Amino acid sequence: xxxxxxxxxxxxxxxxxxxxxxxxxxxxxxxxxxxxxxxxxxxxxxxxxxxxxxxxxxxxxxxxxxxxxxxxxxxxxxxxxxxxxxxxxxxxxxxxxxxxxxxxxxxxxxxxxxxxxxxxxxxxxxxxxxxxxxxxxxxxxxxxxxxxxxxxxxxxxxxxxxxxxxxxxxxxxxxxxxxxxxxxxxxxxxxxxxxxxxxxxxxxxxxxx
Length: 209
Prior knowledge:
55% of the residues lie in helices and 11% in strands. The chain has helices spanning 10-26, 30-42, 47-54, 58-71, 106-114, 119-128, 133-144, 150-157, 161-178, 196-200; strands spanning 45-46, 74-81, 84-89, 94-97, 101-104. Strands 1-3-2 form a three-stranded antiparallel β-sheet. Strands 4-5 form a two-stranded antiparallel ribbon.
């Protein structure tokens, strides 16, 4: 993982290495990624509220909260709501450069987290592997920007059109909620037209205004 703005000195390299480690950890366990994404979207929020939204047990929710705190991407605040401590998660992002540069941020983490509860995303990963999610997210964003069609995304991904339609719709439901919380998408202009009923059935819901 590289960052063009990162310092070549040890502190900067350490920061980049830490982000790389955090993203690896989040992309290693779908449920942890989903817990992180929900906490980020709804910050500040309580662990109780997060586990109820995502249907985690109390012990699992607190285990994940403590893991995120140890990773340095979430913290317990000295504030309370209905007698429970509020927590806040921070966005994490970084670049991976090989033949091309991929920018990983909360959107990709949230999509990966959704694979444990969204049948279309789970099936896509089963067929093509976890690494295929990043190009699918990029393809969905390209479609949402109006620069290609869903069939064009299918051609780029090398999958049948019906499969591309299903996975881009599933990713769209995630992006509709997560976009505003992902700094890597702050300068990317696109709109996600998702019916409210579809959002209600999705893995994440927009926070209360």
